[in-house]
From TrEMBL:
<dbReference type="Pfam" id="PF09924">
    <property type="entry name" value="LPG_synthase_C"/>
</dbReference>
<feature type="transmembrane region" description="Helical">
    <location>
        <begin position="81"/>
        <end position="101"/>
    </location>
</feature>
<protein>
    <submittedName>
        <fullName>Oxacillin resistance protein FmtC</fullName>
    </submittedName>
</protein>
<feature type="transmembrane region" description="Helical">
    <location>
        <begin position="50"/>
        <end position="74"/>
    </location>
</feature>
<dbReference type="GO" id="GO:0005886">
    <property type="term" value="C:plasma membrane"/>
</dbReference>
<dbReference type="InterPro" id="IPR016181">
    <property type="entry name" value="Acyl_CoA_acyltransferase"/>
</dbReference>
<dbReference type="GO" id="GO:0016755">
    <property type="term" value="F:aminoacyltransferase activity"/>
</dbReference>
<keyword id="KW-1133">Transmembrane helix</keyword>
<feature type="transmembrane region" description="Helical">
    <location>
        <begin position="12"/>
        <end position="30"/>
    </location>
</feature>
<keyword id="KW-0472">Membrane</keyword>
<keyword id="KW-0812">Transmembrane</keyword>
<dbReference type="InterPro" id="IPR051211">
    <property type="entry name" value="PG_lysyltransferase"/>
</dbReference>
<feature type="transmembrane region" description="Helical">
    <location>
        <begin position="107"/>
        <end position="124"/>
    </location>
</feature>
<keyword id="KW-1003">Cell membrane</keyword>
<dbReference type="InterPro" id="IPR024320">
    <property type="entry name" value="LPG_synthase_C"/>
</dbReference>
<feature type="transmembrane region" description="Helical">
    <location>
        <begin position="136"/>
        <end position="157"/>
    </location>
</feature>
<dbReference type="GO" id="GO:0055091">
    <property type="term" value="P:phospholipid homeostasis"/>
</dbReference>
Amino acid sequence: MRLLRHPAITAAAPWTSALLTLGLGVLLLASGARPSMPTRFVKLMSFEPAILIEISHFVSSVLGLVLVMLAFGLRARLDAAWAATIVTLLVAAPLSLVKGFVWEETLLLLALAALLAPFHHAFPRKARLSRMEVTPGWLVSAACLVIGAGLIGLWSFENADYGDLPWWQVMVDEDAARSLRAWAGSAIALLAFGVWRLLGSAAKPPIVGEEDPEFERVRKILAAAELSRPTSNLALLGDKRFLFSASGESFLMFGVRGRSWIALGSVVGRRDERLELMWRFRELADAHAARPGFYNLEPDDLPDVVELGFAIQKMGEAAVAPIENYTMEGTRRGKIRRAWRKAGEEGATFEIVQPSDVGPLIPELKRVSDAWLETHAGGEKGFSLGGFEPRYVQEFPVALVRWQDQIVAFATLWPVASRSVFSIDLMRYVTEGPPRIMDYLFVELIQWGRAQGYSAFDFGQAPLSGLDDRPLAPALSRVGRLIYERGEELYNFQGVRHYKDKYDPIWQPRYIAAPYKWAIPLVMADASLLASGGVAGLAKRPKKLD
């Protein structure tokens, strides 16, 4: 038994079991499509009812398709696939005797069941078969196997003439009809399975042994984190799940959509706990048959992501402006300088309100937020962007711009414990104030941040910015570049980049990562749906102003 638990044998068991199960599944499909052995069949007919032969022949072929399906679950190391495969093998074994006394098939099926039985430990993923990730490519492969079995049947009966027979006679008479029924049953079963898996939505996997924490625990880590970014404050939004380190001084936050578990950024807390916590996240997702991914990674995170064996793709760039020596002088910043001075001359004032004092301002802030939302597509966001939730807004300092005793613009601030960089989350305004009021707000924020000892101001991302369109560039980069250049109706990609670029920031790349290159588009799509609140959020359009 110790030899069976050797790491090398344990690692090889899922793939070996999957290949053997796939082979036997194909064997049953082919056996059902071919003619029965005459001598054995005649002897079987002498004591076995014909209806029992017909039923066992049909069910045996369908079980062949089931084994083909289960092979995918065995490769994914699903505990449920291991159990279901053994049961299917034990059921199919006697059917091979009943359908035509094919004792060779029975021995092979029983032998594989005996071979699989001691390797339960090699299938540690505790997930239902309904959560098995089945790709369209795999379904196409399975369809090819079923079609191949049908062609074997046609080849085997090539001397039979079906052209003059009505369909009901073909389906109830002779050995050929039995093969056609078995093949048709397998094809219908595969079609039903494929439609269900491609169109059905999977349930969200539970988190075993981890509970959503009280925010006090998260606040404590954020306040003392050695490793944090402005976006780490999204942990307080209330839509994340958390994985904490053994010391309790670090956490990794993630969202769940379908089979995707998407970590937002990297670990928050201690740098020396980052890699271990990222491994735990991948192992936990793997144990639940989920698709892990990392969204909005920075260059500093990449060595650890590579250590996990993940594929990486650039998703855009973030504008980070050093502010220690930032000045408004010079011709390049002339328009910003004039907008800032003009707003001040017209009576605009700037102030920072601390979290404890934000509560009484919530009604007025909501008025500004609602007016802003009416003119912008998509509605409130989540996951990678904050939304106007009073409890969440009161977690942070708020920058206000007043004009004629009214709040005309505000921004919630994202600080970090190290004071290396700060950013803003919600940024909302009304049109009643001075023109270009956001330029005024940004200039004041830069001056405030410098006075507070911050070294940089993060203006946020420009999605799909900075992707290459070279002939040898990755396909995802080339597609992203095409969307960036031609997709202005979907999102103001170039406008966002142009607006932030006038502050002369340093453009830093941001990345997305997944276990396989083909999974990156799926993770990106699920992250977008998490941020937008689903398809309905993506489709929501702004109201037209009269």
